[in-house]
Specification:
Blueprint lengths: L1 H17 L2 E3 L16 E11 L2 E7 L10 E7 L3 E4 L2 E3 L3 H4 L5 E11 L4 E12 L4
Parallel strand pairs: 4-8, 5-8
Antiparallel strand pairs: 1-7, 2-3, 2-7, 3-4, 5-6, 7-8
Length: about 130
Amino acid sequence: MKKILYTLLVISLLSIVSCQRITTNNTNKNNDNTIPKIEIRGVVTDITVIEDGIEVLIESKMDEGTDYDKASVAINSKTKIFKGQEELTKLPDDIIKIGDTLEVDFDDAVAESYPVKGTALIVRIIESPEI
């Protein structure tokens, strides 16, 4: 009986630890349009409309200087969106399309999962496919 309780305790602790949130180490949480730590740079492969914006799936090869190769990113009304140096004021579902290449800086925390999940603080559109 003790072995069963001990096993259940270990499994519970491992489950809690594996589902914890991690804090990113970005130092630039100010109001400018720079992204000092690009956490993911990649192509939008899926878009889902959510309550306060959109959620995009971004996929890429892990580049030097980035932390993730795949991420589910919520882009909401608090996210700053840039194309080049220009800040865009339209709703994210009006400007971000499948095939766009984005650079993302997450707000403070991301969920430790695969793909990683988090809310974008800053998004920069690097490339948009010509239609």
